[in-house]
UniProtKB/TrEMBL annotation, chains A, B:
Protein source organism: Nicotiana sylvestris
Gene3D superfamilies to which the protein is assigned, alphabetical: alpha/beta hydrolase, Serine carboxypeptidase S28, SKS domain
Phylogenetic placement of the source organism: Eukaryota, Viridiplantae, Streptophyta, Embryophyta, Tracheophyta
Family, per entry: Belongs to the peptidase S28 family.
Residues of the signal peptide: 1-23
Entry protein name: Lysosomal Pro-X carboxypeptidase-like
Keyword Hydrolase listed: yes
Glycoprotein is among the record's keywords: yes
Gene expressing this chain: LOC104247163
Pfam families: Peptidase_S28
Alphabetized InterPro entries for the sequence: AB_hydrolase_fold (IPR029058), Peptidase_S28 (IPR008758), Ser_carbopepase_S28_SKS (IPR042269)
Keywords linked to the UniProt accession: Glycoprotein, Hydrolase, Protease, Signal
Gene Ontology molecular function, alphabetical: dipeptidyl-peptidase activity; serine-type exopeptidase activity
GO biological process per UniProt: proteolysis
Length: 508, 508
């Protein structure tokens, strides 16, 4: 049952970088786009104004059972900014970010939207860290223990996380004597799924949710397992047919080259790989990772997710591939594309194929992907930019058994949160959810793309990528992005006005 | 940590029979009114037509965590009647009873309403037993193990029960290839709370809920702890001021008499108590139990809950008390009233003060009342028919520590399911719930008594008692009861029509 931490690091590597070969775990969510401190709007922090205070809440380990063990508690971190808050007396709103699978500071620093709209709404900002990530580690904060075996890791689940958020928010409001302040929840990616689910499950705690790039439908028998890679394909093919063809044709060329005498050495040289060792599989993973994450973070302005990227990086990659200077040299073309993702600053003298660092503490996602977050994304049809392959649930089962000694429950998420037939189910149930999706984001295929009711609405940006709306704004933002954010602000304003109105109605 | 079964039996006794003295656990729900086999409408069963088939489902012990232990399963019992079902091809509806804190056969046999409306709706009937009750015992069905300590009992919780129902229903529909059949859930008392919560938490599994006498608001800081006993007071006082005064005055008279030489013996004789032992406390508990449960089951036709009762038993009790033949003999008057509850058949030659049998397997309720179901009901104000007393949460804490070594979480239910400000919260969230309450039922004070929205509605019967609407109908039923049921049928019909209509809309 013991799982060594290094094994998790290994798994992390597999999860991040192996969408093509043996371990078909879905790509990790990129979760957020990191913005450099020199960003105009990030100057808040650099001017000595702290972006947030750090606080801790004593949280219950197991909300749903009453075993003696489950009465244990842990310290859950949350970040707090009340600079713009109108205060409890005016019932000024509270905006809560429902943290995802990593360090909450990272998400907070990259959710500029909430900081930028706080003054307008006189809102208190709270960013809650997801259990088992960052500094919110059960078992006395000892990650080695918390991640040591399936008994301890077992408490890492989405339902527990949602109950954490409910418990913390209710307690916080009580302590602030702000029980009548409306709460709006925000989240991107997995955090967006949590925000949407939170509104559905805890309507008594939040009046509405902005769920950005939340693929709540990316589960078995709802969304096609080809959807994810089809969108990546379309992103590149949309830039140029040649770009698509070069990438699509490259996999066989790499395989063929690897088989020749001195082929691996030649590949290593072509791609400026640092270490001596190279395998065609790892090269293929390394390249496909670059294409996948570049598609997800195909933002209209320069960004920095795992790596710094220019504006519209897919376009830049295709430019490199289509560059006439590289002639017919496929590897040189692909190197040019990969260099944009892995070395846009140009500082690296060689590229590291096996980077299994985890600066944002995302390692727990493997556990989640092996228990409940079984999101089929690895199918590749004939037209895919990647080699054809089928989503194979049993492969996931074998992988999870091997690595974590755990059995996935592929139907649990839809049992608990629904998903099937969602338009019918929510047409007359629930309210106040915005589902934002950028259609260039491969996860958008598993998102809610149509309005469900008058107040459960879809906002679509044809040119948008993964939760682009939540990023800090920039003078260079295109008009469509400004419009998306304006619509979101407008809708949230309506929720809040309606809340105050209803409050008044019932107190008369 | 070991809890001996006999201790639970003892607790059961305390819970049932001690609303006045030291252990202020709320009265158990009476849950259902038992109907004798000779009932006209019960003849279904007696004619050799089985009322239901018994089936079992392999259920997951812990839905919310992924610890190795929690991957255990247990056999969950459900009862099944498809005699009237229109079948999967026509997407005929499925009516599910969300079982409460006892043997599901008992609830099923007493939920005649579902059997009686099944032919009209061509509905499949399913009655699911609540985990840890009846034959749905985890740990291999061994109640001795399941109830042996807090580690095993820990899995007895309402959230787990709801997830059981979702899992079972989804699986059952799949097996019947009836995934498109609409599901309506029904429940009375705690089962009604579960039905309402199930609709709120699992709208993708059920299209609507009939929650009968479901005191979902009977929690701290929502409903007054005096409410419960105030209603009992009103029930008796409404019959006659004298009846109220005699009962109210009796407690001191019992106390005084007990203090005199030979007083206990005199009391024993007055009340025809079988055993030699008598204490004023146990006599007081015995009497107050009779008044409490008679108020709850103050049905318009003869019934049989724990004991057989005449129609309108409160009226009968007051008749006995007001009977001029008993003159000024308070004890004789009270004996006459108690005799209606404890010996209506007249078969008993003496009355048993300490009956701690548990024929319907309700013993797990103490655990639930000591963990999450902290429902304040024990307050008695000056006007109460019982001696004045305050609801004291700390008393519950001490009791639960002593008996079960467990600490209540008094805020959990409202954190998970809401309750505060319910009208505002559900005004624009959720749909399709009927809250039925009979205002003579002491639990009605914790029920939803006003329409919340167009489709979350309250049906009130001024003369109704605890989930009287779910009982088998009878030729003697008063007009108001017929009307209540007709309204319920009408509303459920609309839910189903709307479901079919929406289904069609989305498939076009």
């Amino acid at each position: 049952m013991k799982i060594r931490l290094f094994l998790l690091q290994f798994v992390l590597f597999l999860v991040c970088f192996s969408s093509l070969s043996f371990a078909k775990i879905p790509p990790r969510f990129p979760s957020s786009s990191f913005v450099q401190p020199e960003n105009l709007y990030f100057s808040l922090a650099s001017k000595g104004n702290k972006l947030y205070e750090t606080k801790y809440f004593t949280q219950i380990l197991d909300h749903f059972n009453y075993n003696p063990d489950s009465y244990q508690t842990f310290q859950q971190r949350y970040l707090f900014n009340d600079k713009n808050w109108g205060g409890a007396k005016t019932n000024a709103p509270i905006f809560v970010y429902t943290g995802n699978e990593g360090d909450i500071e990272w998400f907070t620093q990259n959710t500029g939207f909430m900081f930028e709209i706080a003054p307008h709404f006189k809102a208190l900002l709270v960013f809650i860290e997801h259990r088992f990530y960052g500094k919110s580690i059960p078992y006395g904060g000892d990650k080695e223990i918390a991640y040591s075996n399936t008994s301890t890791l077992g408490y890492l689940s989405s339902t527990q996380a949602l109950a954490d958020y409910a418990t913390l928010i209710i307690d916080l409001k009580k302590n602030l004597t702000a029980t009548d302040s409306p709460v709006v929840v925000f989240g991107g990616s997995y955090g967006g799924m949590l925000a949407a689910w939170f509104r559905l499950k805890y309507p008594h705690v939040t009046i509405g949710a902005l769920a950005s790039s939340a693929p709540i439908l990316n589960f078995q028998n709802i969304t096609s397992p080809y959807s994810f890679n089809n969108i990546i394909t379309q992103d590149f093919r949309g830039e140029s047919e040649n770009c698509y063809k070069v990438i699509k044709g490259s996999w066989k060329k790499i395989e063929d080259m690897a088989k020749t005498t001195g082929g691996l050495k030649k590949l290593r040289k072509s791609f400026r790989i640092c270490k001596n060792y190279i395998s065609p599989d790892s090269l293929v993973n390394w390249l496909s990772t670059a294409f996948t994450y570049t598609a997800m973070t195909d933002y209209p302005t320069p960004s920095n997710f795992l790596n710094p990227l220019p504006a519209y990086p897919v376009k830049e990659m295709c430019k490199a591939i289509d560059d006439p200077k590289t002639g017919n040299d496929t590897f040189e073309k692909l190197y040019g594309a990969a260099n944009i993702y892995y070395n846009y600053t140009g500082k690296a003298t060689c590229l590291n194929l096996n980077d299994n660092s985890d600066p944002h503490g995302l390692g727990g996602w493997t556990w989640q992907a092996c228990t409940e977050m079984v999101m089929p994304t690895n199918g590749n049809n004939k037209e895919s930019i990647f080699p054809p392959s089928e989503w194979d649930y049993n492969e996931r089962v074998r992988f999870c058994k091997l690595i974590l000694d755990v059995k996935p429950r592929p139907d649990w998420i839809t049992t608990e949160f629904g998903g099937h037939d969602i338009e019918r189910v929510l047409k007359r149930f629930g309210s106040n959810i915005i589902f934002f999706n950028g259609l260039r984001d491969p996860w958008s295929g598993g998102g809610v793309l149509k309005d469900i009711s008058k107040s459960i609405v879809a906002i679509i940006a044809k040119e948008g990528a993964h939760h682009v709306d939540l990023r800090w704004s920039s003078k260079e933002d295109p008009e469509w992005l400004r419009e998306v954010r304006a619509r979101e602000i407008n809708i949230i304003s309506k929720w809040i006005s309606q809340y105050y109105q209803t409050k008044t109605d019932f107190s008369h």
